[in-house]
Amino acid sequence: MSLERFFNQAVSSWMSAEGPDSEIVLSSRIRLARNFESNKFPTVFSHEEAKVIIDTMEDILIKSPIEKFDKMELLKMDEMQPLQKRVLVEKHLISPQLAEDSPHGAVLLTENEEVSIMINEEDHIRIQCLFPGLQIAEALQAANEIDDWLENHIHYAFDEKYGYLTSCPTNVGTGLRASVMMHLPGLILTQQINRIIPAIHQLGLVVRGIYGEGSEALGNIFQISNQITLGKSEEDICRDLKGVASQLISQERSAREALRKTSNIQLEDRVFRSLGVLSNSRIIESKEAARCLSDVRLGIDMGYITNMPKTILNELMILTQPGFLQQYAGGPLRPHERDIRRAALIRDRIKMENEK
After folding, report:
1. What is the pTM (predicted TM-score) of this model?
2. Each residue of 54-111: pLDDT tens digit?
3. Under a CB-based contact definition with an 8 Å cutoff, are residues 89 and 211 in contact?
4. At 137, which helix (H) or strand (E)?
5. Coil, strand, or helix at residue 74?
6. Domain limits of the chain?
7. Which molecular-function annotation in GO is an example for this chain (predicted)?
8. For the chain, does the N or the C end have fewer beta carbons within 10 angstroms?
9. Is residue 62 a known part of a binding site?
């Protein structure tokens, strides 16, 4: 398999597949943080010590591949161009920290990109499983199977009282971060989101933007994840998150129906105006593109638009990010040049759909 596939193909298989409640929940993610027992943590280790971790992981992969999952490829950060790393961030396959602050890092990726194992990020190992729709339990099961596979070869840093030991105290315990990525335009348009977010925080969960901590909720897409890893079991954390996600799904559906009843023609007008902008713009900035794509996806979900697939939001939200635009261009682009290419790419994609 060519490694260029990871950089040139916009939509991972987990994003293009249908999952439970996928009109609202784009994906479910489980991440497990683990560290080697006898090695310094990444916050203090040397280049040579970092290389030992990568070599160990590569040796495990070669000598004892995990059969249930797709073949894995090892990508080393110091062998990749900045644009290539940025593309992997935009596809949610690695974290911004691994791309920007971990020159001695690496990632193991399965061919379908449902599984990524980040090496030498904030911790020695971060196992990540991404599933379409609301499939938190399924993603947890997959992550645990990979965790068990690695634990057959690695002695983890573990304390009987505190659980798995991690670089950041907030991850001590299970080392688990569970999250769902949700498209919530109805709650935005009905102005309910501002009262809902504080209530979610009170339940020990956190709401972030599309690329996690410090990012914006572009295109009305939010990530909801757990804050607490100590004192709760993995199953409890995932059950609590699924409960909140299920409530948000119900509230979002109710908000959409309320909009249909009270503002149907205005909503339909908004959807088709956004479709017109995307279909005809010659220059479009990323924020405007995200907003219009959100409107179009809402229009698809509510039956106003019938000739486009739901996955067009997933695809174009990734394709129109700066890294992908520059990857396709073959090099760096100035912001204005990116806006022109973004508009052209969206026009071409919509035209292709209309011609089917």
Report:
1. 0.90
2. 999 999 988 888 877 778 899 999 999 888 899 899 888 999 999 987 778 999 999 8
3. yes
4. helix 136-151
5. strand
6. 1-9+30-173, 261-355
7. creatine kinase activity
8. C
9. no
